[in-house]
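Q: Hi! First time asking for a complex rather than a single chain. Here are the components, and I think there are four in total. Is that enough to go on?
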Amino acid sequence: MKPDAPFPAYQPLYRQIKLLITEGLESGQWKPGESIPSELELAKRFNVSQGTVRKAVNELAQENVLVRRQGRGTFVASHAHERAQLAFLRITPDAGPVATIEAELVECRRVRADAAAARNLDLETGSPLVRVRRVLSVNAKRVIYEEAKVPAELFPGLDAETLNAHGCMLYTIYESEFHVRIVEAEERLKAVAADADTAHPLGLREGAPLLMMERVAYTYGRRPVELRRSFCNCAEHHYANIIN
Amino acid sequence: MKPDAPFPAYQPLYRQIKLLITEGLESGQWKPGESIPSELELAKRFNVSQGTVRKAVNELAQENVLVRRQGRGTFVASHAHERAQLAFLRITPDAGPVATIEAELVECRRVRADAAAARNLDLETGSPLVRVRRVLSVNAKRVIYEEAKVPAELFPGLDAETLNAHGCMLYTIYESEFHVRIVEAEERLKAVAADADTAHPLGLREGAPLLMMERVAYTYGRRPVELRRSFCNCAEHHYANIIN
DNA sequence: GAGTGGTCTAGACCACTCA
DNA sequence: GAGTGGTCTAGACCACTCA
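A: Yes, that's all I need. Here is the structure of the assembled complex.
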């Protein structure tokens, strides 16, 4: 395999290999938690050197799409194991680690995408969405009220029953029940005053300061598949971030 | 050069090279904005292959310590150029990009480290610090009130005059005037209610919700050198973050 | 001991920058 | 055209896992 296609801009070989691997992941050829073939095997299959496969796999590992384990193999990253979940839950108690997380379902229903939701999810206005509202408890304290919206088409049969049956981690459910893996998210944070809707579920008075987190979550290929707005009571919790 | 030293745990060659390069940076042998020697030159100097140097340099580039430019060379990252500054200023207008940033100095004086500051900065309680309080304007709107504390020892002569003479980017000043380069930071975000101290500089009423950002900033080798607490009025601005 | 990923080398050639 | 980083190959050997 050589760089051909002069038009779609020059892409190095390892990027093309990366794309081929990503396609295998998208198609479900290799599922979350499973191992992909060894470097030598992939090199043979794609007719390139091991070094080129390595470079492609390294980038995917870096993006948390694959997980390398020396001596064992390379695995498809999963929200189910390894508490990689916590990468997407940045709220932490001020003192001590996150020990438990529980969710109480407030509501799960079908809605129509408004203009903003449609724009962010790359859909038509009015497209059917599933809207999930929940209260999350960290270490048995209710601190987050969140609303998630996802395209109904991608999540057929997502309802209260499904949610209650499969634990509290939404991204684990997306992955195991609907074959949608979240790999990246963009967040916008603001401090806002609690209104009636957000104050009550968290046991606060209206006007109390809340950390609002608006998120667009993406699957492979930077395709947006979830819109989320969360509100966190920061009395004893904070949002942790590392900059570099 | 071969892996020797059996005791301090096995470190691959490229990590040792990485450390040697970092030492050159810390010592000021190569200064921010300057280029470091070419890969082949470094390979000759350290008596390893170009590939090993490349691996070390790649990691440092990844950490935003070095910047690679094909055809030109490898440069020491700088807060002065390339608006790499914005990596550490996550506050953005809700609509449109950051066009201008200005700072008004509120206060600059010497203080003593309290227990918390001492712990976070790896100092003794009571150590001399310089405390800087400022109001930052983004696109000509005053939206951030911030307080930074740094060890006085590391920043001799840091005073109001210095600050007013060298523009508004603190990390650029640290770098150009005091040879302290910030490479990483940990932040904790909370929503809080404005008190008298924070409300007035931002033109808000007490009790208004503010986004509080507490930061520990690190130089090479993860040495903590700045403590910062900022408050942002989120009426028309937000904190942007990417998770993956 | 077989198989995996991790490190290291040597060398060829490409893409880009600049004088 | 000389010099830089970027890609790609082939091959050796190491560290780690597991049966």
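A: Residues 13-26 of chain B form the longest helix (14 residues). Let me know if you'd like any chain examined more closely.
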